[in-house]
Amino acid sequence: MDSITLATPDDWHLHLRDGAAMADIVDHSARQFGRAVVMPNLKPPVTTVTAALEYRGRILAALPDDARFEPLMALYLTDATPADEVRRAAETPEIIGFKLYPAGATTHSEAGVTAIGKIQRTLEALERHDVPLLVHGEVTDAEIDIFDREARFIESVLKPLVRRFPALRIVLEHVTTKEGVEFVQGCGPRIGATITAHHLLYNRNALLAGGIRPHHYCLPVLKRESHRQALVSAATSGDAHFFLGTDSAPHPRPHKESACGCAGCYTAFTAVELYALAFERAGALDKLERFASHNGADFYGLPRNRGTLTLHRAPWRIPDALPFGRDSLVPAMAGEDIPWRASRHPG
Ligand SMILES: NC(=O)N[C@@H](CC(=O)O)C(=O)O
Ligand SMILES: [Zn+2]
Ligand SMILES: [Zn+2]
Is the pTM of this model over 0.95? Predict the structure, then answer.
């Protein structure tokens, strides 16, 4: 196959940061996606509808005039989120949901939720107003092995949560394990999961074999090959529970290439091309459109996009680095050739 055309895809999990750095990267997403869920883990975190709408305004202002890109804002849940903020979010179409970061789990999660028991009233309000809960699904206990943190979260937090709030819509963000995939497959249509391109393409050897590769360090951390295979099966199955979320998470190069490097892979520059590579390797390019363009919109009850994106087989070399505010940024597969090239045709 030399080209494949999809309905315009969406990115249901994206980090854009803010300020000059954001302005340097936001168009990478807008060139490929119709919409993106913009994560709220700024400093300080985006905890209110007002702050999210201001942030959204800065994103739109940084885009080229002819861009057709709709940021859908996630709010950052804290121990102190008032039920009233949930009501305001439910009344604001630009807000897609609330993001649960267990405190200490990942980048800028310090202000996150310290114990699920502390937010029961907020969860009740989310369920009542039908506002989705987006979850970074890892426990944070220092004694739990980092490769087991997602599986433990599913047993100790997610399963009880789903039982207690059966009508709550929940997205297990950036699922990385067989346990996560199997849990979501067994749930009804109110539970979904995003899958990143890097977790489809790489296992933990890419991080640790033959040298430590900080640009492959992200959270949840890359897992062993059997988990990657479970993710590929889920993404390419057509199962409506699973949809595209890059978790593209840019960090300045010196913060990645460091004795204590930050977590996050920058995949937005070639996002759909990376997914196409993973689907092609699985012999499932025909399933890419459902995963990238249909399932997420259906889960959120939003219309599918008009317009299309075409992937041409036209190998090209990904740059070694990109501008990122005062610094630079190393994209996924920097310096390597990628077989597909995406071009978007807004409808
Ligand atoms: N995925 C990551 O490794 N990092 C994300 C945070 C997150 O999504 O957990 C970031 O904001 O840098
Ligand atoms: Zn996360
Ligand atoms: Zn993320």
Answer: yes
